[in-house]
Design brief:
With 353 residues, the protein is mostly helical. It is built from 13 helices and 6 strands. It is globular.
């Protein structure tokens, strides 16, 4: 798809580079090598986050080239995940939710380990990632639908929501499944996700609730785009386009996207930059909402927090404390890199963070 973002392209590229400097410059990695959820205004790191460490490996694996700092960041992150999995620890993160294991997180970890390990010839990282992806394939094929919480781990103590009981967002695990060529398992996830799409375009992300959380909505879009791109599935690509168009109808006046959309009432939810970044990326990849993207790209660029070692994006710009968020910065860096591409936008399906 063609970017068509005019003067915003150059600024987007500059901000993307600064975000990348921060992500690869030890700005959000712990001493162990894990990528943490965020760094607060006082410089303190939040918890070590396995899912986000997986995303970071996918992003690093997709870089055309890496600085010495980037190579070291990836090596440390991969080693941390290998050691964690070898010890049998698959919890979402330590000291939280009774140690529950989320299948979505495992998919993101597996995809990152496989892509990074193959790119940089790290056999142990590839082996652990492929084993994890194989477990997910078996889970997908031996159940009517993929469970959000792994049945062989502790039950979640959290209320029913998209992350604990939702289904369409789990389709993003197809990235890991396709990397090990488990096509039947991947097709099973895609088919299940499609049953949750309304004719107007949205995915019903919440069990028994008339709201659409845009974070898992875009995860589903990303899954359909990856599958459609890899398999030449025009129906999947059309569904991703329609879902992205629907989301951009809810753009906020400032240019970003809201946390959620209530289907049965007029509720204005907080602006959230992981969603805006996902929306920009999905729009550029599917060709949807292109007339709205320039304002969103500008919003991300002007909201990036300048730091001595680069820049970072906050989670919600209206929050009293603007911490430097790791996954928002990863999504934002990739979205702005795509926005900065002249002409046709290009990204391999296995490089999508």
């Amino acid at each position: 798809m063609t970017s068509q973002l005019g003067d915003a392209n150059r600024t987007a590229g500059e901000v993307a580079e600064r975000l990348g400097d921060w992500l690869t410059g030890n700005g959000v990695q712990s001493d162990s090598g894990a990528f943490c959820a965020w760094r607060d205004e006082d410089g303190l790191l939040a918890f070590e986050y396995p899912e986000i460490t997986g995303y970071a490996l996918t992003w690093l694996a997709g870089r055309p080239s890496l600085t010495a700092a980037g190579q070291e960041a990836g090596r440390r992150a991969a080693r941390w995940l290998v050691e964690r999995l070898a010890a049998g620890n698959r919890a979402a993160h330590d000291g939280w939710d009774e140690g529950a294991v989320y299948t979505f997180d495992l998919g993101m970890i597996a995809a990152g380990m496989i892509s990074y390990g193959r790119r940089f010839d790290e056999a142990q990282t590839v082996e652990r990632g492929e084993l994890l992806a194989g477990e997910l394939a078996k889970l997908a094929l031996t159940n009517p639908f993929m469970p959000a919480v792994a049945p062989d781990g502790p039950p979640t103590g959290r209320p029913s929501s998209w992350s604990t009981a939702g289904r369409p967002h789990l389709a993003k695990c197809v990235q890991a499944l396709m990397l090990i060529e488990e096509w039947d398992a991947a097709a099973h996830l895609i088919a299940d996700a499609c049953t949750f799409q309304d004719p107007s375009g949205y995915f019903l992300t919440q069990p028994d609730e008339q709201i659409v959380m845009l974070h898992p909505h875009f995860y589903t879009v990303e899954a359909l785009w990856m599958w459609g791109t890899a398999r030449g599935d025009d129906d999947a690509l059309e569904r991703a386009h329609r879902a992205t168009e629907w989301a951009w109808r809810h753009q906020l006046p400032a240019g970003g996207l809201p946390r959620m959309v209530a289907l049965d009432e007029d509720t204005v939810a907080p602006e959230q930059f992981d969603l805006t970044s996902q929306g920009v990326r999905a729009g550029l990849l599917t060709g949807a909402g292109l007339d709205r993207l320039e304002k969103a790209v500008s919003r991300l660029c002007t909201s990036a927090l300048p730091l001595p070692d680069g820049a970072a994006l906050p989670y919600q710009p209206q929050a009293e404390s603007l911490h430097q968020n790791s996954w928002v910065s990863l999504f934002g860096a990739q979205a702005l890199e795509l926005a900065a591409q002249p002409g046709e936008v290009s990204l391999a399906w296995h490089e999508l963070v």
